[in-house]
Amino acid sequence: MGAPRPYARSQPLAITELELDPPGPGELLVEVGAAGLCHSDLSVIDGSRPRVMPMALGHEAAGAVVATGAGVTDFAAGDHVVLAFVPACGECEPCRAGRAALCEPGAAANAAGTLLGGGRRIHTPDGEEINHHLGVSAFSDHIVVSQASAVKVDPDLPSEIAALFGCAVLTGVGAAVNAARIEPGQRVAVFGLGGVGLSALLGAVLQDAGTIVAVDVVPEKLELARQLGATDAVEAGPGAVAAVREITGGGADHVIETVGSATVLTEAYDATRRGGTTTTVGLPDPSQMLSIPAVSLVAEERTLRGSYLGSSVPARDLPKFIDLYRDGRLDVERLLTHRLTLDEINEGFDRLADGEAVRQAIVFD
User: Fold this and answer.
1) If pLDDT is split at 50, 70 and 90, which confidence band does 62 have?
2) Which of the listed CATH numbers 3.40.50.720, 3.55.50.30, 3.40.50.1000, 3.10.580.10 matches domain 181-306?
3) What is the domain partition of the chain in residue ranges?
4) Whole-angstrom distance, CA of residue 167 vs CA of residue 60
5) Mean pLDDT of the chain
6) Pairing of strands 27-37, 60-68
7) 150-153 and 80-83: which strand pairing?
8) pTM of the full predicted structure?
9) What is the DSSP string of 254-293?
């Protein structure tokens, strides 16, 4: 963590050959078809989201099951799967309440760098254990994951498209549909137009929002947002809040923030109208603090809420979102701006840090 930029020179991600144990009980051996590069990976690299080291990085992936561990009955060799970065145990209180993104054993395993069952399946030839990233470790040609991290999908869905559903689409579309619960005709603004932000925009379009304002610093992303259904585009900066409030006639009903910055979240809150909801999916450095007028929550009946994994239940929402994609109602393919080989991964994270890409995918197959 914390290697200096450019990453193409400092090489924070080393490509090396590791040993992979067979799947344990309730686990799958998966051959990865494609893995997406996400800001959550970048946050580990730059140290803003510290994780246990050493770690095999990557959490957004799709592939095919090669083998299954003991007790696995819902998956078989040859099944194609998309992986979700929160393994849902199905038994804890949040899981029973339909809030799989808040699975308590899943969160504990992710923090510890283990699989859901508590074990690690990756190690160096001399036996040093390697931590798993969010139960997936997607930047590898083969991985072992908990069956609770996997959702079966049709094999004809290209891996580099399928992978995006595991994080960008679940998080972004889920934020619009499950968390914000945008209704037809409402005014919406999205701050930050990476893969998650543009997915949130697609979710707003899906929900038949009236006005959709896209906010970012990159002109090319603003243009892509227009093509994907934004009615207005605003350059991020000092005048962005005033512009959003003017376009929406006093503030948006729903503002979704995806940047992972307390400063941007404050702007998103300021761009929300009285009685409106601000939904944040970004993950800022834990040291960042948010300051808002406390009285506004009551006097203006404002709502500020977080959404992790798009407040989704992967087993329920992934198939639904994929069906919407197949029906032409979620233009997910437009989010994929670069296809990479594994040896281009550090350059890919330079591109991501510079805002030059929406979603990049390492394609193994």
Assistant:
1) very high
2) 3.40.50.720
3) 7-168+312-363, 181-306
4) 6
5) 97
6) antiparallel
7) antiparallel
8) 0.97
9) EEEE-S--HHHHHHHHHTEEEEEEEEE-----TT------
